[in-house]
Design goal:
The complex is a heterodimer. Chain A has 35 helices and two strands. Chain A is an all-alpha fold. Among the domains of chain A are: 275-569, no CATH class; 584-731, no CATH class; 732-783, no CATH class. Helices cover 72% and strands 2% of the residues of chain A. In chain A, strands 1-2 form a two-stranded antiparallel ribbon. Chain A has helices at 3-24, 31-34, 36-46, 49-53, 78-101, 109-128, 132-150, 157-188, 193-198, 200-203, 209-223, 232-235, 241-250, 255-267, 271-294, 298-320, 322-325, 332-366, 382-396, 402-415, 427-451, 469-487, 490-504, 522-539, 541-544, 547-550, 557-579, 584-605, 621-639, 643-663, 667-688, 700-726, 734-745, 750-758, 760-782, and strands spanning 58-65, 70-76. The longest helix of chain A has 35 residues, at 332-366. Chain B has one domain (2-49, 67-98). In chain B, 65% of the residues lie in helices and 0% in strands. In chain B, α1 (2-20) runs antiparallel to α2. Classes of the chains: A mainly alpha, B mainly alpha. At the A-B interface, α28, α29, α30, α31 and α32 of A face α1, α2 and α3 of B. Chain B: It is found in: Cell membrane. Chain B: InterPro entries: CPA3_antiporter_subunitC, NUOK/Mnh_C1-like. Chain B: Belongs to the CPA3 antiporters (TC 2.A.63) subunit C family.
C-alpha cells in the first residue's frame, strides 16, 4: 500500500465519514468537509508533472489476487495524470459550486456527497489502474455512482427513468468490455496493460483479436455516449447541475475516450480500430450538434453538445491511429489529430464545465431552463453573462479562446485524412465543417436566447438577480482557464500534452507547439466559413426550424429503447410464467428431467459407465422368483385405480424387500423392515376408511409424459447401479468397523455398534427427525382452526 | 446378482417417479415409499452383495458382509417410515378438509392466484 493507493482510496474513506459529519454538524454545509480532499489530491497529482514530463512513469503495486493475475497496480503516466488532474481539479470546483447550489436545509447532502466521493474514487481508480480487472471494477463503480447521482431526486419520475437508462446502457457496454478483457487475457495471459502492450505485435494476427477490439469499443462507445448509444446522456441531465458538469461532461463520459486512448497501442495497428472510431465519432459529432439546435431546454442543448464534442474527440483519436496503421505516409500528418484530441479534451472540460455552471446559475436564479421563457438577463446577471460569452464563444471555436485553437487543429486533423488512399475521405472534413456550423448555432442560442432579447419576468418563477459570489467562483476560474489556455496554450504542451501523447502513441516523437496564426490556410478559411454561415443560419433559425419536423418521431432511437425495454420486460415475464406454473408437480418433472440429463451426460461424458460381470454374487432360482415378484408388483402399482390394491401392492414390495435383506445377510435390516412394513400397512389401513375410494386419474397425455420421465429415471438409476458396482475407485472404509467393533466398542453386532457407538450422533438426529414427525402428525390430527376460540 | 438387482432398482425408481408425478395425493405418498425401497436396495447393492456372512462378530467368519451400508439403511428405513407416516396423515387431513385428493384442485387456495 503506497501513498498513490491511498490517494485513490481516500475518497472512499472520506465517504464513510460524510454521514457522520452531516448528522452531527448540521450547521455547516457538508460540502465544506468534502472540499479539502479534491484540492489536496490535485496538489498531490500536480507533483507528478515533473516526473511524467521527463517521460518517466510511477508504478506502485499492491498484491490482491495474485494467483489469478489480479493485482491492484497503480500507474501514473502522462495520460493517467491528465485525467487525474481533470478529476480532482474539476472535482474541487464542482464541490465548491455545489455548496452554494444545494441548500443545506432542504437537500439530502449526506447521500449526495457520499455518491460524489464514490464517483471520484472510482474515476481515479479507472485512470490509474494498470490491471484491467481492477480497471473494470472501478469502471462499473463509476456507472453505479452515476446511476445514484442521476436518481438523486428519486421522487421524480424522470430522474428514475434517466438513471435506469444510463445504468442499462453503460453496464451493457461494461460487460462487453469485460468480455474483451477476458479475450485479451486468453491471448496474452496477463491482465496488465503494460504487459499486453508489450505483446501487441504478437496478438495482431490472433483470431480473437477482432472480437476483443469490438468488445472494447462497445464499452468505450456506451460510456462516452457515442451514436447510437448517446440516448442516455440527455436523460442523465435530470441529475443536479453540479453532477452534470462533473460526471456528464468533464469526467465520466470521457472514460470511454480514456479507454480508447489507453488501448490504442494495443489495437491501433488494425484498420478496423481506425475506421470504427473515426466513423462513429464523426456520426456522433454531426448528430449531436444537429440535435442540439432543436432543443429548448438549456441543459438538453448542453447534453447534445457534449455528445457532439465527445464524438469530435473520438473521431480525432481514430484518425490519429492512422499514424500507426499507414507505414508509407508521414505519421506527423496524423499525430496532429491525436494532439488535437487531447488538447480539446482539456478545453472541453473548461468551457463546458463553465457553461454547465452558468446554466445551473440561471436555473437556480430564475427557476427555469427553458429558452422560450428566458431572455434579457444580461443586465441582471452581468458576471454570469460574461462567463457564458467566454464559454460559448470558445465552444463555437472563436478566437482568442482555447476552443479556437483546438478547433483549428481539429480541422487540420480532419483534412489529413485526404492523404490516405481513400475515396470517401472527403466526407470527414465536410461532415466536420457542417457539424461545426451547428455547433456555432447552438453556442449562440445558449448565450443570446438567454441573456439578450425580451425580458419576460411574468414567465419566471423567481425574480432573477446575480448569483452569490461563492457560486460564481468556480465558473470564473474555469472561464479564466479558457482565456489563459487560449493565449498561452504552450504552458500545457510540455507539462501535460506531450506526456499524454507519448502514452497514447509510444514510439513517436512529440514536440507540441500551439500557435494562433498559421497564415491563410484551409483551416482558417473553414473557420471563417463556419462563422459566416453560422451567423446567417442563426438569424434565419425560425425559417428553417421546421426541418426538424421532417424526421419521424417513430424512428427516434429513444422509441427503440423504450419499446425494446418494454418488450424485454413483457417477454421475460411471459417466459418465466410459462414454466413457473406454481405447480410443484411440474417443478418435480423439471427436476427429474434435469436429473436424467445431468446424470446421463456425466456418466458418459466422464466415461464412467462400465459393466463388470466378474466378481458378482451368484443367483439362486428363489431369488429370481422374488425379483420377478417385486418387478411385477412395482409395475402393477402404477396401473392400480383403487386404494386397497395400492396398499396391498405397497405392502408386497415392502415385505419382498425384507426378504431380500435376509438373502443379503442383513438380519437387522430384515427385522426392522418387517416391523416397519407392518406398522406402515396398519397405518395405511387406519387411514383407509378416510382415503378416497377411487384414486384421481390423470389424462392420457399427462400419463405419457410422466411415463417417459419415469422410464428415464429408472434407466439412469440402473446405469448408475451397474457402474457403481463395476468401478471401485478406492477401498471401502468398512474394514475399520469390522476390525474394531469388538476391541473399541465391545459389541458383537457390527451394524448396531456403528449406529449407537461409532455414528451415535446420526442416530440421535434420526430420533429427532422421528420426534418432529410425531409432533407434526399430532398437530395435524388434533389441532383445528377454531377462529381464535379455545375448544 | 448385482446386475439383476440393478434392474430391479431401476424398476422401483421408475415406478416411484411415475407415482410421484401423478395428481392423486395417495399415489404420491405411495411413490415416496417405493422410492425409499429402491434407494435402500441401491445402497446395499453398491456395497457389494453376499460378500461373506452376516456382520456379527460371533460368526467367526473369514469375511463379513459390508456392515456400513446396512447401518445407513437402518437409519434410512426408520426415517422413511416417519416421513411416510407424516405424509399419510397430511393426505388424510387434506382430504378430510378439502374433499379431494387431486393436487390440481388444491392449487391457489391461499389467494395467490
Amino acid at each position: 500500500m503506497s501513498l498513490l493507493h491511498l490517494a485513490i482510496i481516500a475518497p472512499f474513506l472520506l465517504a464513510v465519514f460524510v454521514p457522520i459529519l452531516y448528522k452531527h454538524m448540521k450547521k455547516v454545509h457538508t460540502g465544506w468537509f468534502v472540499l479539502p480532499l479534491p484540492i489536496l489530491l490535485f496538489a498531490y497529482f500536480v507533483s507528478f508533472i515533473s516526473t511524467t514530463s521527463n517521460k518517466q512513469t510511477v508504478t506502485e503495486s499492491f498484491s490482491w489476487i495474485s494467483a489469478l493475475g489480479i493485482d491492484f497496480t497503480a500507474k501514473v503516466d502522462g495520460l493517467g495524470l491528465l485525467f487525474t488532474l481533470l478529476i480532482t481539479g474539476i472535482g474541487a470546483l464542482v464541490v465548491l459550486y455545489s455548496i452554494y447550489y444545494l441548500s443545506k436545509d432542504t437537500e439530502k447532502l449526506n447521500t449526495f456527497y457520499v455518491y460524489l466521493l464514490l464517483f471520484m474514487g472510482a474515476m481515479l481508480g479507472v485512470v490509474l489502474s494498470d490491471n484491467l480487472i481492477v480497471l473494470y471494477l472501478f469502471w462499473e463503480l463509476t456507472s453505479f455512482s452515476s446511476f445514484l447521482l442521476i436518481g438523486y431526486w428519486y421522487d421524480r419520475e424522470k430522474s428514475r427513468y434517466g438513471a435506469q437508462k444510463s445504468m442499462i446502457i453503460t453496464v451493457f457496454g461494461g460487460l462487453a468490455m469485460l468480455g474483451g478483457i477476458i479475450l485479451l487475457y486468453i491471448m496474452t495471459g496477463t491482465f496488465s496493460i503494460t504487459e499486453i502492450i508489450a505483446q501487441s505485435d504478437v496478438i495482431l494476427s490472433h483470431p480473437l483479436f477482432v472480437p476483443a477490439l469490438l468488445c472494447f469499443l462497445l464499452g468505450a462507445f456506451t460510456k462516452s455516449a457515442q451514436f447510437p448509444f448517446h440516448i442516455w446522456l440527455p436523460d442523465a441531465m435530470e441529475a443536479p447541475t453540479p453532477v452534470s458538469a462533473y460526471l456528464h461532461s468533464a469526467t465520466m463520459v470521457k472514460a470511454g475516450i480514456y479507454l480508447v486512448a489507453r488501448m490504442s497501442p494495443v489495437f491501433a495497428e488494425h484498420s478496423l480500430w481506425l475506421w470504427l472510431i473515426a466513423g462513429f465519432g464523426l456520426v456522433t459529432l454531426f448528430w449531436g450538434s444537429f440535435s442540439a439546435v432543436k432543443q429548448t431546454d438549456l441543459k438538453s442543448i448542453l447534453a447534445f453538445s457534449t455528445v457532439s464534442q465527445l464524438g469530435l474527440i473520438m473521431s480525432l483519436l481514430g484518425i490519429g491511429a492512422a499514424a500507426l496503421h499507414f507505414d508509407n505516409i508521414d505519421p506527423a500528418l496524423f499525430t496532429v489529430a491525436t494532439t488535437a484530441a487531447v488538447f480539446h479534451l482539456i478545453n472541453h472540460a473548461t468551457f463546458k464545465g463553465s457553461l454547465f455552471m452558468v446554466v445551473g446559475i440561471v436555473d437556480h436564479e430564475t427557476g427555469t431552463r427553458d429558452i422560450r421563457k428566458l431572455g434579457g438577463l444580461m443586465n441582471l446577471m452581468p458576471i454570469t453573462f460574461t462567463i457564458a460569452i467566454i464559454g460559448a464563444f470558445s465552444m463555437a471555436g472563436l478566437p482568442p479562446f482555447n476552443g479556437f485553437l483546438s478547433k483549428e487543429m481539429f480541422f487540420t486533423g480532419m483534412l489529413s485524412i485526404l492523404n490516405m488512399d481513400f475515396n470517401w475521405g472527403i466526407l470527414f472534413p465536410v461532415g466536420a465543417w457542417i457539424a461545426s456550423v451547428f455547433t456555432f448555432i447552438y453556442s449562440m442560442i445558449i448565450v443570446f436566447k438567454t441573456f439578450t432579447g425580451k425580458y419576460q419576468p411574468e414567465k419566471l418563477e423567481k425574480k432573477p438577480h446575480e448569483a452569490p459570489i461563492g457560486m460564481l467562483i468556480s465558473p470564473i476560474i474555469l472561464a479564466s482557464l479558457v482565456i489563459i489556455f487560449g493565449f498561452f496554450p504552450n504552458i500545457l504542451s510540455n507539462s501535460v500534452l506531450e506526456p499524454a501523447l507519448q502514452t497514447i502513441m509510444p514510439g513517436f516523437a512529440f514536440d507540441v507547439h500551439i500557435g494562433f496564426w498559421h497564415g491563410f490556410n484551409a483551416e482558417l478559411l473553414m473557420t471563417i466559413g463556419v462563422v459566416v454561415v453560422g451567423i446567417l443560419l442563426y438569424l434565419t433559425l425560425s425559417k428553417w426550424r421546421s426541418v426538424y419536423g421532417i424526421f419521424p418521431e417513430k424512428l427516434a432511437l429513444n422509441r427503440f429503447y423504450d419499446n425494446g425495454l418494454d418488450w424485454m420486460q413483457k417477454g421475460s415475464h411471459s417466459l418465466t410464467n410459462s414454466y413457473m406454473s406454481g405447480s410443484i408437480r411440474n417443478y418435480l418433472a423439471y427436476m427429474f428431467s434435469f436429473i436424467i440429463i445431468l446424470l446421463t451426460a456425466t456418466l458418459f461424458g466422464k466415461d464412467a459407465f462400465a459393466v463388470n460381470t466378474e466378481n458378482v454374487a451368484d443367483i439362486g432360482p428363489h431369488e429370481v422368483i422374488l425379483a420377478s415378484m417385486i418387478a411385477i408388483a412395482s409395475v402393477a402399482i402404477m396401473f392400480t385405480k383403487t386404494r386397497i390394491t395400492s396398499i396391498i401392492l405397497t405392502g408386497t414390495i415392502g415385505y419382498l424387500v425384507s426378504l431380500f435383506f435376509v438373502i443379503f445377510r442383513a438380519p437387522d435390516l430384515a427385522l426392522t423392515q418387517l416391523v416397519i412394513e407392518t406398522i406402515s400397512v396398519s397405518l395405511f389401513l387406519l387411514c383407509f376408511y378416510h382415503l378416497p375410494k377411487k384414486l384421481t386419474d390423470d389424462p392420457v397425455s399427462f400419463k405419457v409424459r410422466n411415463a417417459i420421465i419415469a422410464v428415464g429415471v429408472g434407466a439412469v438409476v440402473t446405469l448408475i447401479a451397474l457402474s457403481a458396482h463395476s468401478n471401485k475407485l478406492f477401498d471401502s472404509i468398512s474394514q475399520y468397523y469390522i476390525e474394531n467393533t469388538y476391541s473399541e466398542a465391545a459389541g458383537g453386532n457390527m451394524v448396531n455398534v456403528i449406529l449407537v457407538d461409532f455414528r451415535g450422533f446420526d442416530t440421535m438426529f434420526e430420533i429427532t427427525v422421528l420426534g418432529i414427525a410425531a409432533l407434526g402428525i399430532y398437530g395435524l390430527i388434533k389441532l383445528r382452526k377454531t377462529g381464535g376460540k379455545k375448544l | 446378482m448385482e446386475i439383476l438387482m440393478a434392474f430391479i432398482i431401476g424398476i422401483l425408481f421408475m415406478s416411484a417417479t411415475y407415482l410421484m408425478l401423478s395428481r392423486s395425493i395417495v399415489r404420491i405418498i405411495i411413490g415416496t415409499t417405493v422410492l425409499s425401497h429402491g434407494a435402500h436396495l441401491l445402497i446395499l447393492t453398491m456395497g457389494g452383495l453376499k460378500g461373506g456372512s452376516a456382520p456379527l462378530v460371533g460368526e467367526n467368519a473369514s469375511a463379513y458382509t459390508d456392515p456400513l451400508p446396512q447401518a445407513l439403511i437402518l437409519t434410512a428405513i426408520v426415517i422413511a417410515f416417519g416421513v411416510t407416516a407424516l405424509f399419510l396423515v397430511l393426505g388424510y387431513r387434506s382430504y378430510k378438509e378439502l374433499g379431494t385428493d387431486n393436487m390440481e384442485k388444491l392449487r391457489g387456495t391461499e389467494g395467490n392466484d
